[in-house]
Amino acid sequence: MKLTVLGYMGGYPSSTGATSTYLLEKDGYSILLDLGSGGLLTFQKYREVTDLQAVIVSHYHTDHIADIDVLQHALLVQSYFQEEQPILPIYGHTETLDAYESLTHKYTKSEPYIERETLNLGPFFIRFLKTNHPVPCYGMRITDGKQTVVYTADSAYQSSWIPFSRDADLFIADCNFYKGQAGNEAGHMTSQEVGYLASEANVKNVLLSHLPHYGNHQQLIEEAKAEYDGSVYLACEGFTWT
After folding, report:
1. CATH code of residue 32
2. For residue 145, how many other CB atoms are within 10 A of its CB?
3. What is the mean pLDDT of residues 13-27?
């Protein structure tokens, strides 16, 4: 299983990075976890737009789905050059129905996921956890039977992350705030909270993502490591974990 960070900024893209977009691959099967602003541009540095087998969106805030309609248009354009363009499934929750229905286009189709059910896509098995966020949002635990990745999407601190993330090989965590700030008011976590959760869940590696547009990001690593003894990485475009 291979994960590549394509977008990692919170809220809006910076001059050097897109917002939440992650590419997960195994045995020729490719999934995008969210597709934020600038995410499709970055994706094309690694794969063709027709190389995807599925997209899963955590929620419908723009920094997580801004390039969905761009992808839909790209697939439409590609259909002019191909004899047969397959329909791409885009998985989302149905609690925001109009946004869910917008995932369907000429060459994409909305598909629901359900919190208490396991979604099987190619070599991956995905479970979902509703997060603490101002709008309905779902984090994911993804395994290929050998390794496990947990993606918090957008979430304030909640203790349910501990059992949900237990013994994960990689914990991709919302880290939009520094230690001591009130991240919970905006529905995001601080570096200190991420470190505590990682320690309690006994995860093997932490990747800090959904980063703030201010301050020294290296400070986020130091604050997380004060609570957690394992490896802590800072998300950046092209960061790869296998």
Report:
1. 3.60.15.10
2. 9
3. 97
